[in-house]
Amino acid sequence: MNARSADRAATLMFWLGAAAVLAILALLLGYILWHGFRAISWDFLTAPPQTIMAGGGVGPQIFNSFYLLFLTMLITIPIGLLAGIYLAEYAGAGRLTEYIRLSMETLTSLPSIVVGLFGLLIFVNLTGWGYTLMSGALALAAINLPFIVRVSEETIRTVPVELREASLALGATRWETMWRVILPSAFPGIVTGTIIAAGRVFGEAAALLYTAGMSSPVLNFTDWNPLSPFSPINPFRPAETLAVHIWKVNSESLIPDVRQVADGSAAVLILVVLFFNILARWLGRYIHHRLTAT
């Protein structure tokens, strides 16, 4: 086989591999959405679930998922961004840096169920909080923190060194250079990574089984006291998320329309995760265009 034929054969194999991935993705999405759309309605999206009778919804589960996402990112983003800045700009070669990188790689490779068991021991039992939103948020923060740190570090490293040198040459301090020059340049990549991490949080279930719980109190949306057990903004109440609800419905639910509820819940979850990924790409391109005018 000559070089041209080998190049065409390799190109064909690459295209076939990409087409196979797209076909599998389209098949999975099509199957879930086809069955799920028939169950989705306004009542389904807003009504609470049922334990025995048919006709329940996933309203509290959707709210719990977004509230848990807010708490998780509130913990993860500041710590991850500061750690990424330290590793990219301030950390030199040494044992401390090696230990930090090793810790991040270890956390990245841990199964989420292991993090959930750790959260059960520390955030649920040791603190005495029980199954709460805060316990789940801390467990998910441990899962997502290595990803945010890596994204922040790699994005900051891609900023041209000439920008740093120009800022320092004009008399700016190292921190002023970081805050006013480097971070704005790295902002599109950081935002994209953060939104992708948010999508991962929304779809997580294994760690939340042991930390946030598999039930939720009847929420009173007129009660905004964060200490009330029935307040939707109370972070120390149990909360069943949408992903956990899908698992629970399929494994131990007694409702007669279990398949319809599971299909509708899965479709809603898929649509939200797709929205996060599409938003990440669009927002990254938009911010890059606004900052660079290209």
From TrEMBL:
Location in or out of the cell: Cell membrane
Q: Where is the ABC transmembrane type-1 domain?
A: 62-280
GO CC term, one of those recorded: plasma membrane
What GO molecular function annotations does the UniProt record carry, in alphabetical order?
A: phosphate transmembrane transporter activity
Name the UniProt key words of this record, in alphabetical order.
Answer: Cell membrane, Membrane, Transmembrane, Transmembrane helix, Transport
Mind telling me which residue stretches traverse the membrane in this protein? 12-34, 66-87, 99-123, 129-149, 181-202, 266-284
How the protein sits in the membrane? Multi-pass membrane protein
Q: Which Gene3D superfamilies match?
A: MetI-like
| GO annotation terms (biological process) | phosphate ion transmembrane transport
| Alphabetized InterPro entries for the sequence | MetI-like, MetI-like_sf, Phosphate_PstA
Task: Quote the Pfam families the UniProt record gives.
Answer: BPD_transp_1
PANTHER family assigned to the protein according to its UniProt record, in alphabetical order: ABC TRANSPORTER PERMEASE PROTEIN YQGI-RELATED, PHOSPHATE TRANSPORT SYSTEM PERMEASE PROTEIN PSTA-RELATED
Family in the record = Belongs to the binding-protein-dependent transport system permease family. CysTW subfamily.
Q: What is this protein called?
A: Phosphate transport system permease protein PstA
Give the classification, highest ranks: Bacteria, Bacillati, Bacillota, Clostridia, Eubacteriales
